[in-house]
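Box S2. Input/output pair 1.
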Amino acid sequence: QPTIFHLGSRAVLKLLAMVDFKFPPLSKTFTESWGPPPHGEEDFAAKIGICDFVEHLDKFPLTKIGKICDFTASGQRWMQEKGKGGKGPKGFGKGKAGFVPVAPPKNDDEGFSLVDSRPLTSKGNGKGRGGASRSKGKGKGKDINYQEGILGQRPKLNAQKGDLKGKGKGRGGLQRRGLPSFREWSVQTKTEWEMKREIMLHSLAKLQLNANEVLYEDLMWCGTLHTYNRVYDRVTTKTEKRLARYEDLGFFNVTTSDDWHLQEMLTADPTVTVIATDHILACLIAAARSVYSWDVIISKVAGKIIIDKRNGSQIDFLSVNETAQDPPNVEDKDSYNGPVRLSQEASCINQNFSQMCLDREAGAKELDAGNPFDPDDGETQVASGAYRYRKITLPGNPKSEDEFEKSPLVMVVRTEVNARMPDEKGGKGLVSVKALNEYEPKPNYAWRSHLESQRGACLATELKNNSFKLGRWTAQAILSGCDTMKIGYLSRQTNNDPLNHTLLGVQTHMTDGFAEQIGLTRNNMFGILRAIIDMVMQWEDGKYLVLKDPTKSVLRLYEVPWDCFQSDDEDEEEHEEEEEQELDEDGNIAPQQPG
């Protein structure tokens, strides 16, 4: 039976006023059903209002006619069963994700802009991968959204404990997906600094120069040069020796602009274009291996280039496990296993080991001059070591159109030599002494149990964990002309004692063979230096900052003001003056007595 709706007269009049629609007259002879009159009736030609659109069906093509919409309770239950039980077409249903509404046709989206394009995720424990654990079997897990921190910010994990559990095989849990562990910039850049160039570190490997045409000339030897004690070559893990501490000796790492020998050589010889130290050049050579941030200052004045560093720069310290898969945690700044404390520990170990392995009974070799940085105050005793000032001439590129790039490049470099072999003659047998340190032995890998039986494996592990540091040492040995490298393995006496260490063994490597083993060639080494110097020579006179990005493998060059980085030195001088002033009983500066 049809449902009859009773409407008032006003509602009927209002409805008729809104829609102009005429019901066709009913057939007088065909009374068995509702509808228009049968075919052939004369009343069929009457106007039927809105139904006239039938004449224009060619303008509205019909693709498919589906089932009529059913909003009744039974229809809603049918739609739910369709989503759960898989009654729909192929590709829909058969899951526990619940009812998924059908998207409207594409034509209905015209004139609208999508604000959020993220796909909707359904909550459920269906079959598939288990969230962040990436397990291949059945598992439970939620998608973990983490935000990579920049400039020291810690990655934020929007997950609770227990969400990383999963069954079956997989990578398991949240891992350090290549995130750098040290995110602090060595220098905070300013907006007014102009960025001159951005160099991708992987492009440095393509720079080549014929190293056979490089010329070397010794200008001066300073300091003291002792003989290496071969007794330490026979040290093993069973006959380990305690590292001596030389706290009363003075160690100097003076920058280029503070070395008056380099300044005199630059002004006296008009052919010299560049002055630098081996510490600074080694960082530029091994830049592609670095992860942490560091910086170098390049000053160009009247066609001369001074490659310098800041006082207290990161270059003065040695990193520990910088390129390891599990580097030291940057959050533990105050811990003795943090990257800052470990770098200080490694630097002290290298200084002490370079003095411990010397044979002082054999006497030192006489050099041209004494230590140029000896304060001569009668209180400070300088450490043993030789400074070798070398003139290095790099060949030019005859195919280049630039006149400077065609001509040879002459630079004076101050290099360091730690010791010499007993049979050293004519510059052969010079030794570069370095030390690797172990701070947290692991049960499956410890030097005390693996160094004697697996020397190659220990060295390969250190090459992987300290690629930048070993690259710097090799470059320094090549620049200084040391044909032998002595690398000591030192470990803490106890894991919680960063002050006392023991020597477990010493490995001897020929510099050229070791450089080939780590993938450092002389052609690439001098090619990097020549390319950077040629680039700066094209710019105007000024002060430029070379900055390593801690978050990317990028080297950026900025133009900075002349007075930049001078405030640190002035603050140190003011602090020293305040310490020298006399204080009264209350700690205040005592007034000067009249003369």
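Box S3. Input/output pair 2.
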Amino acid sequence: SQAIALAGVAAVAGTASDMVPRGFALAPQVFRRLSLSQANALSPGQHSSRLVPIAESSVGVSAACLSSAAAAAVVASAVARQSSKRLGIGSVQRQRIAGVLACRSAATQAPVEEGEPQKKKEGEKKKKEGEISLDPPSGTRDFFPEEMRQQRWLFDKFREVATSYNFQEYDAPVLEKVELYERKAGEEITEQMYNFIDKEGAKVTLRPEMTPSLARMVLQLMRSETGDIAATLPLKWYSIPQCWRFETTQRGRKREHYQWNMDMVGVQGIVAEAELLSAVVAFFESVGITSKEVGLKVNSRKVLGAVLEKAGVPGAKFAETCVIIDKLDKIGAEAVEKELTQKVGLAAEVGRRIVQATTAKTLEEFAELAGVGESEEVQEMRKLFELAEDYGIADWLQFDASVVRGLAYYTGVVFEGFDKAGVLRAICGGGRYDRLLSLYGSKKEVPCVGFGFGDCVIIELLKEKKVLPEFPATVDYVVAAYNEEMLGKAMRVARLLRQAGKSVDVLPEVAKKVKKAFKYADRVGAERIAFVAPDEWDNGLVRIKDLRSDIAEDLKQQDVPIGDLANIDRYFSKGQVAKAEAAAGEAATS
């Protein structure tokens, strides 16, 4: 559907790629107006008459006003994808929806100026006074139970990998002081903060990233008189914080996201980088991603530093230069060369040579283009690839001189995870940042290295590769009472099962009709159902039926003593079932 929409852009508009982010921003507004009944009612002949008016009124402008072809086509694509996901629309219908929206709006050829507020259609119903929007703020998410199960699964994977490498979990306030992020190196992050002045006059922000918070906490462990850290080194910490950045939303990138971080403090050598890269690979493998699908681009700012030093770039301009080079994919080589000339003060020829060097795809090629030969920095990179070979992760790594990362504090090896299919943006990233603590007042340079994984892009990756599991609701037991008099008894059974470590859902109504109880148990994903009825209860028993195990039907049901519910699993264990089957066989032959 996206290919169809973008083909329409190329054919009709040909340009206006800057409208793509705006198109995605409008897409949810269109989608929210599509009800299930409307979606199901769509047929090929009805798309134009039904869907387009819905889209136009949802966005709040006419087709003529909507259609920069690029914006409209991307809206169409995004609407189609979301419709497919949430409303059960098939791929054929999805493509028709995208095509209709793209072509209808592109045909009008009336562009909308970027940043111009969009006017309401005449006659459109106004929002009722006092009415509250039920949508979360732009770029944020609600997590319904199904989404929470997915999130918990992902976070558990993060934690399993981190703990297997003996990393300890930590956290910090989501609210931080603005000064923690103002490093004055031209970083985008300083322009994307959700910052404000609180009621005490303090300049604060929702944290845009976690690394400065980590640095602040490590400094609290530092002895002021010596600069030594009063803790066993290396520190190996991980966290899964929620981070906030006011930026253009797109697939895999929102204004709030959770980010898995792993950081090592106090290790000078390249072994730390090898260990963290191994952890990244371990995570990918744990969720079913292979090196054929995802790779890790690796570079070194130390090598780049040697190049810049040889080119005459002042040391004080190193961080700013790296931030500019990191924009290569976004603004292109010519614009980067221009910024290097205007902002850093490099000669045009030097700027061209630096940009050309970043196109190298092997370490040898980079060293030759940059003219740094077999320097100490190059040898360190060679050592990293040798360690990766020994670690068994070399097939995941590739050298890429264009990777420099956009944060000013990186000082050594930097790396990014990337989708080899080219569908998604950077999947993860990290590197060495030995001087960050010095920026915050450390008397000594403290070696640090770490990485970050955003949850949004990981989920998109797993969907794209079709390895994201389903997360149905499940519960160990449903307890059903036969009548009103047995409700209290049912609650007692539920309590005993919970004390045995089971999750239990009590059917809130009596289940005189067994079919009703079974239907409810199936709906909530129960493994077993416990019937609390007068005849069994008078004999000190509860009838329990297994709903999921692959055993003979006549063995799925057991009458379990009330006083032995703590050992409930014993009645459904393989040994118990085998014993019952043997007894049944003997009875049949006697």
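Caption for Box S3: The longest helix spans residues 145-164. The chain has 22 helices and 17 strands.
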